[in-house]
Fold:
Amino acid sequence: MNASIFSSTIGVNFSNTFQSAGKQVSATTAATQIKATGVKAVKMFTYNQTDCISAFAKEGLQVLVDIPNGDLKVCASYDTATISAIIKVLSDYSTTIPMICVGNEPLGSWWGKKFTGDLVNALKNIKNAIIAKGLATKVTVPFNYAIMGNSYPPSAGTFNGSLKNTILDVCAILKEDNSVFMVNVYPFITQKNQPKNVHLDYCLFTAGEKHWVHDGSYTYKNIFDAMYDALYVALGNNGYGSLPIVIGEAGWPTEPTATYSTATKANARTFNQHLINHCKSGNGTPRNLNVKIPCFIFEMYDEDKKLTDAGLFEQHWGVYGYNSQSKKYEAKYSLAW
Structure:
């Protein structure tokens, strides 16, 4: 990742919020297992799970914390209690937390613009509070890829018109903060929604030449690069091409295969391993060569109580799954992190 902010190119998303009682992985177990992978950065979805932050810190892991969408309104109005609680965590763990995420996919269409009006002010207020405390913590916003109005071909990459002003206001803050633009990408979902147009091997980094995509003088051998470059083009066309792009979430589910034929352990391993190798390689993308691509794999553990509005696969993104016999979380497949 950006050497001035992160310890490693590859990180992992962690949550135990939606695990059944009796199946919730403990902070110490998670810290031990994550460290054992060789990963040095963890991205969480809360800021107040200090047991987990402390356990990760003891293992020498960096931690990105998050302000949930439900707190954006009070942060936008500078609710003293909320802001103070957030800043206390950032201060107490200032050597562990290099960055705080403000919201989680707050502009997703499923929210019906519920958080759109509060996002920028919340981001400003959190940054101002960080500065007032004398902390070096960076801010960012994990966006869903649906912020793109057009992403094909990559050269035509544009932001969603109804969200563009908010996105650019965020970009201005990120640039001033010398921070990063964070986006979540899910080739599995793209392929699931467009199986006739998006080939599986193009999503798994295994495509042969017949499935490559040509965009002018640029050749795309996988959809990850195409999605990245469409965003890169959109940022550049709006004066923010210098913002480093960080992949906040990317992964592949392992079940239920009966419903989603591509949701298999084999495909998950193939996707994640190629993704890790590609991001660490320093090759970059056709339009942004010779850069390592910061990426947080989604996710470390299955969450069997996660909402399944988008599909039953939502409970099965974990690289680690719960073994009902050993009553432990174990790797579903091997990865070289």
Observations:
- The first helix runs from residue 27 to 37.
- The mean pLDDT is 97.
- The chain is about 35% helix and 20% strand.
